[in-house]
Amino acid sequence: MKRFHVHVSVDDLAASIRFYTTVFGEAPTVHKDDYAKWMIEDPRINFAISKRGHQAGVNHLGLQVDSDEELAQLRSRVASADVALLDQTNASCCYVKSDKYWVTDPQGVPWETYRTMESIETFGDDTRTRADTATRACCVPTQQKVEPSLGASEAKACCG
Questions:
Q1: Does the reported pTM lie above 0.90?
Q2: Which domain holds residue 67?
């Protein structure tokens, strides 16, 4: 089963947590110093916010799936549309390990489709020290528009 995913970059995490807790009628499922996530069932959405050095606003959109089969099916559908893909297997980001791929829509909005495998203790592979986590940003590929001529190994995947 699929779940719509929205990730919003915020300037004030505490104020945003208060706001979205009120909007959703429940506290975040995950709450960290720089990140919060709500796993809402009605409507079925994975809504995340973070204060990680990105400009405030919609960071990326996506679809979360429950199985490798669903992920492969969606990836195949997008690939048949001749859209550049950036694959990330066993990626560490947003406090989870995931298999995922990225595409960019015609307006430049990054879209992530992924399957979460497990929770992890750090925001992602870019987290080197506590002091630099506020200025380091992970998840959205540093190359917003993945060029079709670049293979996944050549494109910057994350955390530039």
A1: no
A2: 3-132
